[in-house]
Specification:
The structure is a homodimer of 449-residue chains.
Chain A: E1 8-13, H1 17-25, E2 31-37, E3 41-43, H2 48-52, E4 62-64, H3 65-68, E5 75-79, E6 81-86, E7 91-96, E8 99-105, E9 108-111, E10 115-117, H4 135-153, H5 158-164, E11 166-170, H6 174-190, E12 204-208, H7 220-232, E13 235-238, E14 241-247, E15 250-255, E16 261-265, E17 268-271, E18 275-277, H8 279-288, E19 298-300, E20 305-306, E21 309-314, E22 319-322, E23 328-329, H9 335-354, E24 369-374, E25 377-382, E26 385-388, H10 390-403, H11 407-423
Parallel strand pairs in A: 1-2, 1-9, 2-5, 9-21, 11-12, 11-17, 12-13, 19-22
Antiparallel strand pairs in A: 3-4, 6-7, 7-8, 10-18, 14-15, 15-16, 20-21, 22-23, 24-25, 25-26
Helix pairs in contact in A: 1-9, 4-5
């Protein structure tokens, strides 16, 4: 690779849907590409909640990045944290295990570092109400949900037992709806006959939402359908309620527009409410004066470049895209939006390298929106067509299998889904990790004699 | 279940190969059975090393105990730690998350709590040289092995880079041999083309053993064959060497019968050397005066009961079995031995309940021994027939698939193995967990404004 004049160096931060798409679309471009990610794998986030609820195993929704880019001769993968971006010097600093390890120079930079969850300034809630963004989050959630049933089974105090069998999901966007539906299915189907002292089907699953309906990204008629489907599954939907406190024993709620507070005793609370962009967005906004919104997203130009820095593209869940007329293009925080932005950035980069016309400004093509709720239950809107029930559910299954990275994963997930559908079981409902490390069956005992 | 006179209460501690076998063989017996385990799943330990090396996902070798015993109407599962056994009062104390939660009374007790790893009194080595007994161990090992390549890729100091590409496995029993072979295959096959700055095929994999040959449980001719196969895979086999120290940067060795010390610089050390029985064995030995050996195993009667306590059976990796003539029955620490003991204990319990003749003393039927080394490489001995190479490897694959719990897992593992064989890939080579929690992509940043 070194005999020709040094090729144009493209550095991509983040191997999510947006970043990976850039790398794949530059496969045959005359560039030296470096993809930097904290993890060594691409995560198929739309199915993360299925790991959290024991339907799938982590390896089935994650693909090693080096494997994905193995045949890309122009691509290098670096695993590490991006700790700083020097826009003047055109380098990024990368660290591993907390130590600064490398500086990487770029000619073009693509930042696609995504978003995490936000507790709206109440970060101490995180310990009691974990969110769902990483595989570790999913395994922790799985541990909590399944452990609650185990603890309830041997709990003598009926009040604590009730709190153990009460599950609160905060936030009724797609993730919250999916989680509430799945937890209810665990209680009412999967573990229905598994216990001797408790009846899991009496568990309360409460979905709390600040707005006046679930799935606010959908039309109201579909929200109403989704709510009916949730109720059929045994989920209690509570709208127009805001969280004012979370602790180890429950959550305190306040009615929207009122002062009345309410306390829900629950030992398992899940946070699916707030999203905050990667802190890199704030760094880039500060360095360039670009606007930053309440969710920490930086506003980029219609071609996805950073204002005043045409060589830097920012995309995915960490940006808002200017429409060039003082407003923003409405963009949902979903995988197709990030992928379309990734493809657009790659197109702009290729056009520049070829010396051709710049492509038209980025435009989001909404191909539709699907949210699954449970077994044969889903709602969706595809090109204006509103769907619900089995047909929406089948569409959801098909689309997610189709987009899942890797043929092997597609096949494994298909097998798991088929078996789960037929048996109402969940093959991956393992309780692992946790503070008391139950893995150490007996390893600590020094041998005697 | 409560209208008839209270049935005979059998409590089983441990849902491994031995304990689960007891439960399954008592399915139709007139007993009320309680199975207590720290984990909510049965782990297929013989394939644990494949999780550690990214070939399989955790969920594929674990089966939820409640699922396994779902159709056993006489069985209750309790998840918890057994913190004490009161032989006089015939109760066991169970705790969850460090808190005492329940006391369970028994008429017959079966203790099958297995073994952990032992550092021979050097427990501070554990941090630098983890062993392989639990799923958490396997994921930690996987993280360390894969992270070493990632760190080497961006390490400027050639000496540290070499230490990062040096992997030391201590102990050449089946687990050590399997791990060394697999790590070598990762370096030489799986990630061969994955990096740009290092050549993974130059990695050193060193297998250290105190005895004069690998796989001492096999005849010397098979040990020699295994050693040749390991060398073909690129593993350096070093025998007659003992570990005198382990730290973050390497391991210090001493020649057997000499004083010469040697230092191996390595950032990834795996402990596959010592095994120690569950501490419950020592408690039971102390309470009854039964002998305890150096590995912490208690000696039980020829019918597997505890001396002087015919209502308590102890079995699996935590016991030695008396031959009734002052000696012990030779028993390898493998799944078939534990399963045969479990079946025997169940038979004794059933005979007592039926008031029939006690069965003959326990006898171990050695059906053979197989150890896999790598792709189409294995050694084995089945009823005196010595096998090696492809035929032993196929036998190993078939037997492990056959005994794996759950049809779904069998099928998923079959798919993974087929794909790995065809592509030399490892679909589950994810780096997860770890101290610096790389899962938090950006969740910590509070939104601005």
């Amino acid at each position: 690779m070194d005999e020709s004049p040094q090729p144009h160096r493209v550095v991509i931060v983040g191997g999510g849907f947006g970043g990976l798409q850039v790398a794949q679309r530059l496969r045959r471009a005359p560039v030296a590409l470096t993809l930097v990610d904290r993890r060594n794998f691409h995560l198929f986030q739309p199915l993360l909640y299925q790991v959290a609820t024991g339907a799938l195993s982590p390896g089935e929704i994650a693909s090693p990045l080096r494997g994905v880019l193995k045949r890309h001769r122009n691509a290098t993968v670096v695993m590490g944290d991006v700790t700083g971006i020097d826009l003047e010097g055109r380098t990024i600093a990368v660290s591993q295990a907390g130590e600064r390890r490398a500086e990487i120079s770029y000619d073009t930079l693509v930042v696609a570092a995504g978003a995490g969850h936000s507790y709206f300034g109440n970060d101490h809630w995180a310990a009691h109400a974990p969110g769902l963004k990483s595989l570790e989050d999913a395994l922790e959630l799985r541990r909590r949900v399944l452990s609650a049933f185990e603890a309830a089974e041997i709990e003598p105090d009926p009040e604590i037992q009730r709190a153990l069998l009460t599950f609160v999901v905060v936030g009724a966007g797609p993730t919250g709806v999916e989680l509430a539906g799945q937890i209810s299915e665990i209680a009412r189907d999967t573990v229905k006959r598994d216990f001797r002292h408790i009846d899991p089907t009496t568990a309360s699953i409460i979905l709390v939402e600040g707005a006046d309906r679930v799935l606010t990204a959908f039309p109201p008629s579909l929200s109403a359908k989704a709510e009916r489907q949730l109720r059929t599954l045994g989920v209690t939907v509570r709208t127009e309620l805001f969280v004012v406190d979370v602790d180890a024993e429950g959550v305190t709620l306040k009615a929207a527009g009122g002062d009345a507070q309410e306390r829900l005793a629950s030992r398992t609370i899940v946070w699916a409410a707030g999203v905050a962009a990667s802190p890199l967005a704030a760094q880039l906004a500060e360095a360039t004066g670009a606007p930053l919104d309440r969710a920490g997203r930086v506003t980029v130009e219609p071609d996805l470049s950073l204002p005043g820095r045409p060589e830097v593209f920012v995309l995915g869940d960490m940006v808002r895209v200017s429409d060039g007329e003082g407003g923003q293009i409405p963009l949902p925080g979903v995988a197709p939006a990030a992928m379309q932005q990734g493809r657009h950035a790659a197109k702009v980069i290729r056009a520049r390298l070829a010396g051709g016309e710049p492509p038209k400004p980025f435009r989001y093509v909404d191909k539709g929106n699907l949210a699954t709720i449970g077994r044969m239950k889903a709602v969706g809107e595809i090109k204006g067509l509103r769907l619900s029930g089995t047909i929406a559910w089948l569409g959801w299954l098909f689309i997610h299998l189709f987009y899942l990275t890797g043929l092997q994963n597609r096949f494994l997930v298909f097998v798991r889904w088929t078996v789960s559908f037929l048996t109402r079981g969940r093959g991956a409902r393992l309780i692992t990790g946790g503070d008391d490390d139950p893995g150490r069956l007996s390893g600590e005992a020094p041998p005697t004699g």
